[in-house]
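Recap from last week: sequence in, structure out.
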Amino acid sequence: MKAHRSALGAALLAAALLVTGCTGAPGAGSGSTAGSSDASAASPSDGFPVTFEHAYGETEIVSKPERIVTLGWISHDIVAALGIVPVGVTEAWGGDEEGYTTWFREHVENVLGAEVPGIVPWGEDGVDYEALLALDPDLILAPYSGFTEVEYERLSEIAPTIVHAERAWAAGSWQDLTALVGTAIGEKAAADDLIESVSARIDEEVQQHPNLAGTSFIYTTSGGEGLTELALYISEDARVAFLHELGLVDSPSLASATSGVGNDMWYGGVSLEELDGIDTDLVVSWSYLPEETQYTLQNPLIARWAPIAAGRYYFIDDPAMSSATSAPSVLSIPWALDEGYVDDLSSAIDGGAVIREIR
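Predicted structure tokens:
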């Protein structure tokens, strides 16, 4: 694993150097590319202006942005992986006490040599627009978000804003999102290189764990007292799609069990009394609290379900691992692989009854 980590770190650093031209990086407040005061100067080869279509119309970016704010999931990882420190980011689910994921902080501080950017505050009514305005962004990236049209219009008054293309909280694959962000910030070639390097790392893991290929699975979440049904994430959900990349396949029961799920939902449900009708080799689940994992596994109706009874399950208590694999990115995927995500899945397929504890 250490060899993988070093190789990928070198690849990401090389991409950062390709973007910036040197190894240094400014502080979080500057918002410029790492280590180069003139790296953001537009030229005819930068691909600008560029126009993006999304749920609320079109957004044109006329020149290479210098002060980027990212809102929602994943975009901040991509911007950082491309050698640029955003001026503001969203607090991360599964992050540390200050709101940053391990992989984002490590990349900004250790690879780019910069300070982590400020967290954009949110209140009961949503994002703090005044705080956002004070950051003076020239681009707001929120392609993996769920902003309403009214919120989008307010954001657009501050800076050109890219939101979700069609469905809220849907941004396509991590490859699609990486390409989009790379194009938006004038680093499409570097983004393509990142996609290639991370994809190669995934392929390597798949080759080392042949028992993943063709294994059927259900992705769910654990529950507490009063649990009467299990959630079943749909095939298009990002965490499910990532398992497809690793060679696993949907349970043959998934399509019918989630056929009634609306466009604003990412999961259906199945009554615990009907679990025996869900045919699957493996159960993958994440938990808000470790106690929920234990409650779920000890529930008599769940405990007798064939994959659970055979120990073919992988429960994720660790919020960092849940975050890394629920919203996979060019930074979180290598981290998850280094932390044993595929090893755990492989062991669970063999009946290892795996629980990823908080670390």
